Amino acid sequence: MTTMTAAQKKAQAKAEYDAFVAACPSRKLLDRISDKWVTLILAALGSDGSHQLGTHCAGESRSMRYSELSRLLAGVSQKMLTQTLRSLERDGLVTRTVTPTVPVTVTYELTDLGLSLHQLMRGLKSWAETHMDDVLANRATYDTHAT
Amino acid sequence: MTTMTAAQKKAQAKAEYDAFVAACPSRKLLDRISDKWVTLILAALGSDGSHQLGTHCAGESRSMRYSELSRLLAGVSQKMLTQTLRSLERDGLVTRTVTPTVPVTVTYELTDLGLSLHQLMRGLKSWAETHMDDVLANRATYDTHAT
DNA sequence: CAGGATCCCGCTAGATACTG
DNA sequence: CAGTATCTAGCGGGATCCTG
After folding, report:
1. Residue B53 within any structural domain of the chain
2. pTM score
3. Predicted confidence band at B3 (pLDDT cuts at 50, 70, 90)?
4. With a CB-CB cutoff of 8 Å, which residues 111-130 of chain B face chain A?
5. A141 and A120 in contact (C-beta within 8 Å)?
6. In chain B, residues 59-98 whose CB comes closer than 8 Å to chain A
7. Domain-embedded: residue B19
8. Beta bridge mates, B99
9. What does the pLDDT look like over B116-125, one tens digit per residue?
10. Looking at residue A93, which CATH number applies to its domain?
């Protein structure tokens, strides 16, 4: 079949490349932490009692109820909260504990792995605070020169 | 006006919270590196001559032509490549050099800042390779137990 | 060769309403 | 209280065509 040659091969190569990239552990990690709510939940669960997500102290993971999280992370829809929590539980980053009280009580807490990820996030935070202002400055300069 | 009270306040609080989150340097950093092509371009420009993105050597930034990048990053559209390159240039992470030869020649190269970011990515890579298999294992277990 | 402009599509986040 | 289900709009991203 001469009807499928160059374009077909190219498409296949692309698919293979994409698969290769998708299989990369680094990419999987990025896919996970780049999620807005993942990082926020991590920060919430990883921080101390303060409601300031900005304040990080390498404290132990703080167990929180569903409603607490929903209150703390002001702009999250139940859907995203639940969805994110489930995926984090699935990945073994948080534990979900159901206490069959009269109104059901569910608490979430970081696992060791989750805590470890939280530590990594703090590393990112350091880099961001160190270099992000440079980036922003460059951006401003670039925009100024632009038409 | 009693017509706007609870719901309004809540919406405003949400907006403020979102703004707060968006202003966070860490989030900005995440928004940047979570971009699929950003990380790949970084890897391409930061790695040595090998076409294996997986192989990282803390080598100097390698200057590459537009077409080289487009060839190396198999599954990228010109749009995304250009778009990503421009944003990286804007942020001062890469330099764009135009050489007015007969057919125009444009080369891209990492700046110090870009190189620095590339180093950070390698840190992420380490974490990913160390813990990602655990995550995957947990995920598999979770899926098994599920209905 | 390098890149701008356009159209189009799938995905996913968000709002709303319902349940145990 | 802690979710689940559905519906919709917005936008990121790809393909395609065109220019200097």
Report:
1. yes
2. 0.85
3. low
4. 113, 116-117, 120-121, 123-125, 127-129
5. no
6. 73-75, 89-93
7. no
8. B105
9. 999 998 889 9
10. 1.10.10.10
